[in-house]
Write a structure and sequence with these properties.
Shape: globular
Bound molecules: adenosine-5'-diphosphate
Number of helices: 16
């Protein structure tokens, strides 16, 4: 058997994991522990085409990782091939511009930037600590959502607020989905090597959604900010709003600013506008059945995505490629068409037939011949990127 890597994505109330071959191409085992922090936590493990369900004695990250470790003890041959653990880390602050092997200095730096991602960082740190105690011989690697965007210039990452807030508190745009953007940019480079020296716009459209401008394979702007709330309209997140709105909602509803931000994070976006669902598929079905609010939510989502793409494009030398990725970007021909319809002033033209007839889960070119930029659909694979970084760092080889 090959060497394999355990990839862990430890969220605030869930923990996803996968065991991948060292080239990242094959998933041998994958699973999710859900309901962590509630009294209904359970772990699902998918292996050999079958799903196995495990109740968690206590619904927390430790219990989930212990169950995964117990499962590996039973499946000895899979455990024997494990060579390392790669952790997805949402916020690396300004300390990390690339993936790193985790040691005490890295843990200290992670602790330091944890206040910037209070929902995610405690779960990541817990995940690392528990994995270290359960798998003491395996090297561990941290792969950051923010790292790819550390190439942004101050002109792009600073907010127009008093300079001392950046100097004293590091309040700035960090951007997220970086692992996905790095993967997609490299993948496009394998099929179109020229793109690595050109201007590429990527729309990562999923439940969380953002865009990124990539000039010569480096991120030059992105739509999420200090936190993943900024930018596009998302499943339940509002994206950018007039900041004064917070004070108005807080006053009218007699709630705190933090409860107001909670509404912008969890009750807004597609869900808030449609008053039906945060799920694009459900909304498309409702729209086809005549639901006007579902159509409005989808059209607003697409319009805002197009606007953010062109805003990020101001940092490019030219717009040569537009890439759609993420659950919605890869699967919704309606959203892709709507986004591109909003870009007609830039002579960006999608081919209606290629857009609807494209093969799922494959790289497809869906632009019209006379479009000013190539339009692609490229399925993202963040787990693969994490596995590749992990194996490269363990072998002391450069990471791209
Ligand atoms: P995240 O990783 O941010 O949680 P995903 O990238 O998995 O989200 O994307 C989830 C979104 O993708 C959901 O809104 C879902 O409805 C949408 N989606 C998945 N498949 C389809 C499809 N066939 N048509 C339209 N939307 C889809």
């Amino acid at each position: 058997m090959d060497d394999t890597i355990l990839v862990i994505n430890s969220g605030s109330s869930s923990l996803k994991f996968a065991i991948l071959s060292n080239d990242g191409d094959r998933i041998l085992v994958e699973g999710i522990a859900e309901g962590l922090g509630s009294n209904q936590g359970r772990l699902t493990i998918k292996f050999d085409g079958q799903k196995h369900f495990h109740a968690l004695p206590t619904s927390n990250h430790k219990s989930a990782l212990i169950q995964i470790s117990n499962w590996l003890d039973i499946n000895e041959s899979i455990k024997a091939d494990l060579k390392g653990i790669g952790h997805r880390i949402v916020h690396g602050g300004e300390s990390f511009s690339a993936s790193v092997l985790i040691n005490d200095d890295v843990l200290a730096a992670l602790n330091k930037c944890s206040e910037l991602a209070p929902l995610h960082s405690p779960a990541h740190l817990k995940g690392i600590e528990i994995a270290k105690s359960l798998f003491p011989t395996l090297p561990q690697v941290a792969v950051f959502d923010t790292a790819f965007h550390q190439t942004l210039s101050p002109e792009q990452f600073l907010y127009g607020i008093p300079a001392k807030y950046y100097q004293d508190y590091h309040f700035r745009k960090y951007g997220f989905h970086g692992t996905s953007y790095r993967y997609v940019s490299a993948k496009l480079g394998t099929i179109n090597p020229q793109s690595l020296k050109q201007g590429v716009l990527v729309a990562h459209l999923g439940n969380g959604a953002s865009v990124c401008a990539i000039n010569s394979a480096k991120s030059t702007d992105t739509s999420m900010g200090l936190t993943p709330l900024d930018g596009l309209i998302m499943g339940t997140r509002s994206g950018s709003v007039d900041p004064s709105l917070l004070a108005f909602i807080a006053e009218k509803e007699q709630i705190s600013i933090s409860d107001t931000i909670d509404i912008l994070n969890k009750k807004s976006g597609l869900l808030g506008i449609s008053e039906l669902s945060n799920d694009c598929r459900t909304l498309e079905e409702a729209m086809l059945a005549g639901n006007e609010k579902a159509k409005l939510a989808l059209d607003m989502f697409a319009s805002r995505a197009a606007k953010q793409l062109m805003s990020a494009a101001t940092t490019l030398d030219s717009i040569d490629h537009i890439v759609f990725t993420g659950g919605i970007g890869e699967n919704s021909s309606y959203i892709r068409r709507k986004v591109c319809d909003n870009l007609k002033a830039f002579n960006i033209k999608i081919n209606a037939i290629k857009n609807t007839d494209m093969a799922r889960s494959e790289i497809c070119l869906i632009s019209d011949e006379n479009s000013s930029a190539h339009i692609w659909v490229i399925p993202t694979n963040e787990e693969k990127m994490i596995a590749i970084d992990t194996i490269n760092l363990i072998k002391n080889e450069p990471i791209n």
